[in-house]
Amino acid sequence: MVTRTKVDLRSDTVTKPTESMRAAMANAEVDDDVLTYDPTAFRLEAEMAKITGKEAALFVPSGTMGNLISVLVHCDVRGSEVILGDNSHIHMYENGGISTIGGVHPRTVKNNPDGTMDIDLIEAAIRDPRGELVYPTTRLICLENSQANCGGRCLSVEYTDRVGEIAAKHGLKLHVDGARIFNASVALGVPVHRLVEAADSVSVCLSKGLGAPVGSVIVGSKSFISKARRLRKTLGGGMRQVGILCAAALVALQENITKLEADHKKAKMFAEGLNQIKGLKVDVNTVETNIVYFDIVEGSKIKAETLFKNLEEHGVFLMPESSSRIRIVLHHQISTSDVQYTLSCFQQALTGVQEENGI
Ligand SMILES: Cc1ncc(COP(=O)(O)O)c(C=O)c1O
Ligand SMILES: C[C@@H](O)[C@H](N)C(=O)O
């Protein structure tokens, strides 16, 4: 088998800036974004506020910082508690920052396989104010759309609105970790602004499926963004000529939103192809966006680390989830021929092992 150039399926965070992004970066109009407004940052923030239907926006270095700032702005009183998914990125992959840095107490509710949390369990997790002597105070509910660890599953606008109603009923705020909100919007056929209408704040990653090299944007009310700007500086996220990065993000918005549907089709194609390979299993119906989780079937005589080594030798790179569960993430720099090549590498790896074991 002829090894091709690298097929990097570890994440949609691995994309390289395109030539048009690099040209925009080189020619970006910039200023000191801490002392005044960097004009290109201002353009990006205005565009993101418009797309999401919120009053204002703020460029931040990462999605992790975007979520941290959002939670800390909403939970700015000691003893605050946030309700979030037990399989959410904020809870699983952000070093517990809301607690270690922000002193905010997490109260997890089980994420269902479809990425939602049961509405009645969310409501049951809200602290009874009558117990204020002993309870933390619930101030915020966090959703994640699409839900990455559940396989890039999309939360419907109806579900998001319903959670928003629960938050409003109890005087709480709603934050959406919208790292891949554009993927959810495209998959559902619902405009981003409608999908997040019920949210008080959203953190949107520019550096994932949109393919920008760096950054996220948080959106919300003018008051929220004003507090967020100050907290960004506190956390060291205030940057100077940040327009260089924002210029690439503006190109990403112009060029890559329309490519997301193709990413989703490649993910479906990959899942359907994997299911044709003896020893691998994936529920194709759960593949809604650009993320595919699949399992090595028990008895297939190959371990994930063996499979990875074999694949890496053929230029294919993945992210291990466990010894038998694997994740691949599609993005605009993976072609359909890359998908077909990768499937052939999987087939070759599995067949080789099965022949060695007389299966
Ligand atoms: C759902 C989700 N939220 C937030 C983040 C954090 O983004 P960043 O890596 O830019 O900190 C990620 C992944 O990176 C993610 O997948
Ligand atoms: C691993 C995780 O932090 C990252 N957000 C990803 O999806 O690749």
From TrEMBL:
Taxonomy, superkingdom: Eukaryota
A GO CC term attached to the entry: cytosol
Domain Aromatic amino acid beta-eliminating lyase/threonine aldolase: 8-295
Cofactor dependence: pyridoxal 5'-phosphate
Pfam families tied to this protein: Beta_elim_lyase
Residues passing through the membrane, by range: none
Keywords: Lyase, Pyridoxal phosphate
Enzyme Commission no: 4.1.2.48
Any one GO biological process: glycine biosynthetic process
InterPro entries: ArAA_b-elim_lyase/Thr_aldolase, Low_specificity_L-TA-like, PyrdxlP-dep_Trfase, PyrdxlP-dep_Trfase_major, PyrdxlP-dep_Trfase_small
Residues with N6-(pyridoxal phosphate)lysine modification: 208
Pathway connected to this protein: Amino-acid degradation; L-threonine degradation via aldolase pathway; acetaldehyde and glycine from L-threonine: step 1/1
GO molecular function terms noted in the UniProt entry: L-allo-threonine aldolase activity
Catalyzed chemical reaction(s): L-allo-threonine = acetaldehyde + glycine; L-threonine = acetaldehyde + glycine
Signal peptide start-end: none
Physiological role: Threonine aldolase involved in threonine degradation to glycine. May play a role in the removal of L-allo-threonine.
Family: Belongs to the threonine aldolase family.
Xref: NCBIfam families: GntG_guanitoxin (NF041359)
UniProt name for this protein: low-specificity L-threonine aldolase
Organism: Dipteronia dyeriana
